[in-house]
Specification:
The protein is of the alpha/beta class. It folds into two domains: 3-234, Spore Coat Polysaccharide Biosynthesis Protein SpsA, Chain A (Alpha-Beta Complex); 237-309. The protein has eleven helices and eight strands. The protein has helices spanning 3-8, 25-39, 56-66, 81-91, 111-118, 136-154, 170-173, 186-192, 216-235, 240-267, 277-309; strands spanning 12-18, 43-49, 70-75, 96-99, 124-128, 166-169, 197-201, 316-320. Strands 7-5-6-4-1-2-3-8 form an eight-stranded mixed sheet, with helices on both faces. α6 (136-154) runs parallel beside α9 and α10 runs antiparallel to α11. The chain is elongated.
């Protein structure tokens, strides 16, 4: 197969979001090159520069000039990891799609093991950082709790949703639309569509260069996104169930509050004016229910807008290495 055909129809597509990783890019590319040369499969490597402010884009252009398997997508600004991964998915041409981090914490040597597991009949193989090299209190423990919660709610029992290193068959990922921090939930989307999902332990290395881009705020975003995918899975075509459920709850509380107030009036000789119960029950409940339901409704509207318009959630500044 000639070089042109290899670029048009590669067996593998690796894509790596990049944000200010100038010190890690050349070592990472060397590891990827070694792993791909060992595999002997046709491949493309797509680096998605997510608005880096250092020399990452300059180095990526140099790498692309040296290796015809490398392609570079430069986004106009920092859109976040999910949007960068979505850009990689949209650009990928391979039969198997493999996302991974560019910070040298994922090991490209594990790609072979992911592919071996796919060949057993699976559609998605997720990496599990069993011996994770991160801080215990700030990273590992919150991650373990989050993974258990996600597994229960999503119905796909994985130990490590946060591991970027995964392998997907093209047909189970090409139509997935990503928003927020939802790239970590792709195995759940795939499972809902009937894909066979499994996981294997993979190596994880401590970060030696650059700075982590993750913080506690990311955990909060993941919780909100988890609420959203649960809502989308259960009520996307029947939102009246959740709206009606909260309406009934609000109605029941209002009836109980009114009954309590009447009871106090008749049997305790307590004037309605002297108890804040009616006002608290009506006003605070109305505010909380309105805000929560408006948030969910907004999520539906955003998805309807993007998908009906076929509008991407990112804007590309330039592409290098594409025909």
């Amino acid at each position: 197969m000639n070089s042109s055909n290899q670029q048009q129809n590669p067996e593998l597509s690796l894509f790596l979001p990049v944000l200010d990783e100038e010190d890690n890019l050349r070592p990472m590319h060397a590891k990827i090159k070694e792993a791909l040369d060992t595999l002997g499969k046709t491949a493309e490597v797509i680096f998605v520069d997510d608005g880096s402010t250092d020399n990452s884009l300059k180095i990526l252009k140099e790498i692309a000039a040296e290796d015809d398997r490398v392609r570079v997508i430069s986004l106009r600004r920092n859109y976040g990891q999910t949007a960068a991964m979505s850009a990689g998915i949209d650009a990928a041409k391979g039969e198997i799609l493999i996302p991974m981090d560019a910070d040298l914490q994922n090991d490209p040597a594990d790609i072979a093991r992911l592919l071996d597991k796919l060949n057993e009949g699976y559609d998605v193989v997720s990496g599990w950082r069993k011996n994770r090299q991160d801080k215990l209190i700030s990273r590992k423990i919150p991650s373990q709790i989050a993974n258990k919660v996600i597994s229960v709610i999503g119905g796909v029992p994985l130990h490590d949703y946060g591991c970027s290193l995964k392998a997907y068959r093209r047909e189970v990922i090409q139509d997935v639309r990503l928003y927020g921090e939802m790239h970590r939930f792709i195995p759940i989307y795939a499972s809902w569509a009937g894909a066979r999902v499994t996981e294997i332990p993979v190596d994880h290395h401590a970060r030696t260069m650059g700075k982590s881009k993750y913080g506690i705020s990311r955990t909060v975003k993941v919780i909100f996104d988890l609420m959203t995918i649960k809502f989308m899975a259960s009520y996307q075509t029947k939102p009246i169930y959740v709206f009606g459920g909260f309406g009934m709850l609000a109605f029941a509380i209002s009836i109980i509050s009114a009954a309590w107030a009447v009871f106090l009036k008749l049997f305790e000789d307590t004037s309605f004016i002297l108890t804040p119960l009616p006002i608290i029950a009506v006003v605070m409940l109305a505010i909380s229910v309105q805000f929560f339901l408006m948030g969910l409704l907004a999520e539906l509207l955003v998805r309807t807008y993007h998908e009906s318009q076929d509008k991407a959630i990112y804007a590309v500044r330039e592409k290098i290495g594409f025909e």
